[in-house]
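Subject: sequence -> structure tokens, single chain

Hey, anyone have a minute? Need the predicted structure for the following. Not urgent.
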Amino acid sequence: MNNKKIVIIGGGISGLTVAWRLQELGFQVEVCEAQDFVGGLAGTIRPENGRYCLDFGPHFFITQKQEIVERITSLLDEDVVSFERTAQLYVQGRFLDYPLSAKNVLLNFSINDSIASIVTFAWAQIKSFLGIFSSLSKQKVHFGEWASANFGSHLSKIFFEPYTEGFWKIPCENLAPEILPTSTKLNFMKSLRMMFLRKVSGPAQSLTERELVLPLRYPIRGYGMIAETMAEKVKEMGGTIYNNARVVKLKSLLDDKYSVVVDKGDRQFELSGDYVISTIPIPNLVDIMSPDVPAVVKECSDKLDYLSLIVLYVVTKKNNLLDTSYVYYLDRPYHRLAEMEKFCDTLFPKGENMLAVEFSCHRGDNIWKMTEEELLEVALPDLENDRILSRDDVDKLFVVRASHAYPIRFVDFRKNLDTFLDYIDSKENIDVLGRTGEYQYIDSDQCMDRALVLADKISAKLKAN
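Reply:
Had a minute. Here:
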């Protein structure tokens, strides 16, 4: 065992993966998690002594990395089911496949929308192809411009822009193209394949592409089983995980080590670390750093905001609520519905079912402050109108909330993020990691992959010193 100690702030999937790998490499890790459960956004809440399993939105595990497949397999053994993803988009009163296909655009839209979508999509691709030979410099674009350039002005107008603004509650002109996980610009041929053939050539990069070609897995007692079994693995290997432990001060010491002050509610204690890894929101990290960060770093960090998420779970005895696993909606107070029975029927008592109703919001707004009953009243008119659930079908309600669910990549986010990252890079023996810590809209398998890479980098650095 190496005598170097590493403190990890945040016990989500990123923090636990890097802890696991560092323990394997012979280091001593201590993980500080502010909640009473591990996993973060990949965690599961289990009310009524575990009778119900509530994820922070309906997740599934998907990856093309063999090492991660083997790790998850070793953790969960037989406690996982595989299934084929089915999902839909509800646009202009019609259910479309997710992701969009040429068949959808041609047959499910009105004739005018179909023609306009195909023509403007083709024209966008031609312009993109010709742009390869252009000497004009690329200009900074917002999300609406990016969507129009990649999918055509008509599809952008009737779907991409309204859905994006409905989800983020922010005008498209204020959002960067990187606001979505699929926003890495596809090249000309891949755009055609995705739109018209639903085929992917080469490695699958975006969530949309990966969902098309990779098998899906789901743990039988909620997605949080991955994080929970990972935490047990870390502890078995000698690592320490503190729950209900909020880091309130991160002090840089003269010898490039750190003092980490932890608040457990009834007491405070101090940890020493040769290295620190933070997975918590960037503004929160900046606020606890000592000495204080430069004013410009503080100012830029405060501009790196996060969208919040509320998931209302409606327990019912009604089955077959949806024709698919989940549906993305436009023009609804919620942005997605998921029928949990179609993920796994062991998440609730036999004879019951759960509908997950997802609301994106901003911390402190009206939606964020609503109770379970108030959220139901907001959703119920559309649920009844769409013949999904009536008031009489509702047996009980649960709710989970995530205050920092999605990094909001405003048009000028890159300047602010780079200012923060440059400051972190200037400090010895500290790194940020994960969706929240790195300010990246990435999935749990991608978080795991980045955590494994970081652990190996830290190991090489500390063993060389």
